[in-house]
Design brief:
With 140 residues, the protein is mostly helical. The protein contains 2 helices and no strands. The chain has one domain. The radius of gyration is 52 Å and the shape is rod-shaped. The termini are far apart.
Length: 140
């Protein structure tokens, strides 16, 4: 038994030890490879995050520039329209002021004619209105 079985048992135990040792080496290698893969994954994830954050910052900066440009364009257009509207209003005001004098002259002629029955010329009515405007500080 010592010559037949014991050497066989020894060979089997050596084979098992070798198999276990090989399996442990493969497990350690697989663990190291898994750790490397995990580190590579973490590094790639961090790089992706930082790249995405940088892209977001650039997009925000570009959007801000575009918004400021659009706002400046809009402000310029509004200023131009405002100036145009003010010019038109000034022209309308000037025309209205010129018409007020004519309307006042006609009203003066009609009022004097209806109230007193006197006939007043347009020249006299114009002179009277200018005199009243001068006295009231509203010279035309």
């Amino acid at each position: 038994m010592a010559k037949v079985i014991t050497p066989r048992i020894g060979a089997v135990l050596d084979t098992r030890r070798q198999t276990i040792s090989d399996d442990l080496k493969r497990a350690k290698n697989a663990d190291a490879e898994a750790k490397q893969m995990r580190q590579a994954y973490d590094d790639a994830l961090e790089l992706a995050r930082s790249t995405a954050a940088e892209a977001a910052r650039k997009a925000m900066a570009e959007a801000k520039i575009q918004a400021e440009t659009a706002e400046a364009d809009l402000s310029a257009k509004l200023a131009k329209k405002t100036k145009s509207a003010e010019s038109r209003l000034a022209k309308i005001r000037d025309e209205a002021m010129a018409n007020i004098h004519d309307v006042a002259k006609e009203l003066t002629l009609d009022t004097v004619s209806n109230v007193t029955g006197m006939k007043v010329t347009k020249v006299d009515a114009d002179k009277a209105l200018k005199k009243v405007a001068k006295l009231s500080g509203q010279e035309a």
